[in-house]
């Protein structure tokens, strides 16, 4: 996780002076717009935790609090923060349940911009993404916080969070029905293998498809109590090959291309131990780029048994 930056105020300098500590100009790192955006995003995790706990007790969604306290930090971060610092800052550890809501909101908002959504749809998307798991506030906490694998009966109860969330968002004045559909449909898949309704591609709202990708990507690239995080490029590869379910192909292609293009110039290690640099992304299969190792070029799209093992540096 990225470090948290603290903006020094006059009171801070006064306290340091009383302690006999004097700061030189070289001791203070300027707070850039990117760092300010990441700080605001980090603070929104604690805010969303309080909001969701209130939802669990009251059953009501405080939509104005979300619009005023959560939305601005997400919009600011997706506009001002480079993609990798944003993703790294959102990798969840012990606060997964609440950080996940902010992360999916940020990733979905970023992806929505990449696929060219107009501003009004971006707003609907971001609200829906923040609230995609709000139905979990009606799931018993002993199931929600269980560290072991859920029983079949417990998993059936957990799956109901999609319907609970749909009802809660639908009944919240001022929210679009499409935001409610995100809560209902974010576990549906293009081939009809998802839940709760097992609907297929054309029946799934486009915004729900964006959140489905964002949800799975963040969940599997975050540390959980029962498993470690997987590298983002490995998750992209699994999503792209369909081993994690069938997602909207064009949205997933855009997401994969943008993240992989950000790797161009990075040094990587391949599964056979070769060290090389990413020089070109294959537009048809972005998860298998062209790698340069010394004077040799390796086209990973031609080697099914070889892929990137890790990013170096």
UniProtKB/TrEMBL annotation:
Pfam families: HD_5. It comes from the Bacteria. Residues 75-271 form the HD-GYP domain. The keyword Cell wall biogenesis/degradation does not apply. Gene3D superfamilies: Hypothetical protein af1432 (1.10.3210.10). InterPro entries: HD/PDEase_dom, HD_domain, HD_GYP_dom, HDIG_dom. Residues 97-220 form the HD domain. One of its GO terms (molecular function) is transferase activity. Keywords: Transferase. SUPFAM superfamilies: HD-domain/PDEase-like (SSF109604). PANTHER family: CYCLIC DI-GMP PHOSPHODIESTERASE PA4108 (PTHR43155:SF2), CYCLIC DI-GMP PHOSPHODIESTERASE PA4108-RELATED (PTHR43155). This is Putative nucleotidyltransferase with HDIG domain.
